[in-house]
Structures are given as C-alpha cells and as structure tokens.
Design brief:
Quinone Oxidoreductase, Chain A, domain 1, 15 strands
Length: about 325
C-alpha cells in the first residue's frame, strides 16, 4: 500500500511517499480502507521528534482515519466487512489502509469521511476539555483562542450547545468571520487582549479559557480570569510554552487545567466512548458541523502539515489516498 513514511525524526520535507506492507487484522482488530485521514497539529510535531511520544522508526503518522472495513480479526464482534467507520489509531492514518482495535472504531453510516475525521480529534479534544476538564456551565463566558482552527471551531460549537457565551479570538478578519459563522457570540483579535476581555466581561473576568496558542495570548488570559475560572491548556501553536506566575492562581482563585486528550482516551475508554457517541449524535441532529477547509492527495502530506504548523489553516484539513 501507499503511505507517508517517517524514516527518522527530521524536517517535514523528508517525509517519504512510498510503499509499506499491507496491515493485517489480528485478534480484535480490523483493517480499514482509508477514504480520508485527518491532519492534526501533533502529527507535524511527532514526525520532527518534537512531541511527547517518540515512536520507533520507520512509522506512518496519522492519528485519525475514516473509511470502509476491509477485513476483520477472529475476535471482532461488533463490526463486519463493508461497514463505514472512523478510528483513532494513534499512528498509521496517512496510508491507503490502517489497522485499529475494534474498541477504538466507531460506525459512521453515511457520514462524510472528512467530517468523521474532524469529530475524532478536533471535536473529541474540545468536548473532553469543556465537559470533563472545565465542567462548563450554562451562562458562563468561554474564550476560545485560535477560534478559526479545527479545534477552535469545535470548541465554539460545543460551548454554545452547553449554553455558554462564546468569545472567539482570531488573528484576522477572515478568521473572525469563520468563528462567527461557527456560532461565536463575538470575535476579536489578539491586540490588547487583556483589556478587551476585561471590558467585554464588565470587569468580572473570564470563566473558561480554551487555549491552544500559548505565548503572549496565554499571558493575557492568565490575567483575565474570573474567580473560580478554569484556564485550559491544550497546546502551544504559537511555538512558545509560557511560564505561569502561580501567584495569579492564588490571588484570583482560579485553576490552570491541563488537557491531554490522547491520555484521556487510554485512561478512561468508557467515558471516551460515551463522549464519541454524544458527538456523533450531535452531528446527526445538526447541532455540530465541522468546517472541512480542504481535501488534498495523500502524497501532499508534508505541504499540508507545513500549513497546519504555520497556523495557516482554518477548519479541518484532510488527506485522501
């Protein structure tokens, strides 16, 4: 099969589009013929050796994929050949075929493959962050940094479902328009962010911040929190991991909360499965709608990853074998 191969941790240009052995379904595994593979920010870090995990090389990146079940292992009970499914596979998604354990595979019926990929990581991350980590309440103010990205759009839509007032923060007029279309109540830029948030909350501060950016935006938000607020740490798309003055948490009485969705899916598989069922239900009822900005040939993975890492993407980007 054709796949994107990481032979060693190196710049994105060194990713290879080449041949790998077809995967085999063993035990409770299924092999999926991939229709769409979602592109995520951590994928670009992983292949450069900049992520929390460092898999043995060579490997095929890609943590989410959607397609059709091609073969099933002898212990598979709930899936059959021909089912359309999506999976969180951790590795292997950037290929014509991927193998995944049945417990991490979800039926998608006639759902668009790109939409299904977006629901896996982008919506899965935002859902876990706002539901389990922030315990977001109706009537609270939610600030979403990177509001036009795939996870940002997801956080906006989920925040509105949960009854929050949502303020999106985006770097351009074009991106702010995307955030507003996704359902944000207001969309602002990063300039004078602390002062803007103070004014918009009447001096009270922000109840929940969804931060995938880090850097100066984190610094501004850390000084804009309401009492009993929750500052969610999801990622550092700015490239700068900020330092936090812990006295702010003391005097303002708010919490800084880490969100590592991949760890959550492994540590609490039953809760994770319930989350995915809820998300798929929201999609089927029209409550959430991923923004799939572009679909690209699998061979162009390196260029697509460059765009994601450069914060040039709006919505979800998808690779199609």
């Amino acid at each position: 099969m054709k796949a994107i191969i990481c032979n060693d941790f190196a710049p994105l240009e060194q990713l290879e589009y080449g041949d790998m052995p077809d995967p085999e379904a063993k035990g409770s595994e299924v092999v999926i013929k991939v229709e769409a593979a979602g592109v995520n920010y951590p994928d670009g870090l992983l292949v450069q050796g900049l992520y929390q995990s460092r898999p043995e090389r060579p490997f095929v990146p890609g943590m989410e994929a959607a397609g059709v079940v091609e073969t099933v292992g002898p212990d598979v009970k709930g899936l059959k050949v021909g089912d359309r499914v999506a999976t969180i596979c951790q590795l292997g998604g950037y290929a014509e075929k991927v193998v995944a354990d049945e417990g991490r595979v979800f039926p998608i019926g006639d759902m668009d493959g790109g939409d299904a990929c977006a629901l896996m990581v982008a919506y899965g991350t935002s859902h876990h962050a706002l539901k389990q980590r922030a315990d977001l309440k109706a009537g609270e103010t939610l600030v979403v940094l990177g509001g036009a990205g795939a996870t940002g759009v997801a956080a906006i839509q989920i925040g509105k479902i949960m009854g929050a007032r949502v303020i999106a923060v985006c770097s351009s007029d074009e991106k702010r328009a995307i955030a507003l279309k996704a359902g944000a109540d207001e969309a602002i830029g990063y300039e004078n962010l602390k002062d803007q948030l103070k004014e918009m909350t009447g001096g009270k501060g922000v109840d929940v911040v969804y931060d995938v950016v880090g850097g100066e935006a984190f610094d501004a938000c850390s000084r804009s929190m309401a009492r009993n607020g929750r500052l969610l740490i999801i990622g550092f798309a700015s490239g700068t991991i900020p330092k936090f003055p812990v006295n702010l948490a003391l005097v303002k009485e708010y919490a800084v909360v880490g969100v590592f969705w991949g760890n959550f899916t492994r540590a609490e598989p039953e809760v994770y499965a319930d989350n995915m069922k809820e998300l798929i239900g929201w999609y089927q009822s029209g409550k959430v709608k991923p923004v799939v900005e572009g679909r690209y040939p699998l061979a162009e993975a390196a260029e697509v990853l460059k765009r994601v890492l450069g914060r040039g993407a709006t919505g979800k980007l998808v690779l199609e074998p």
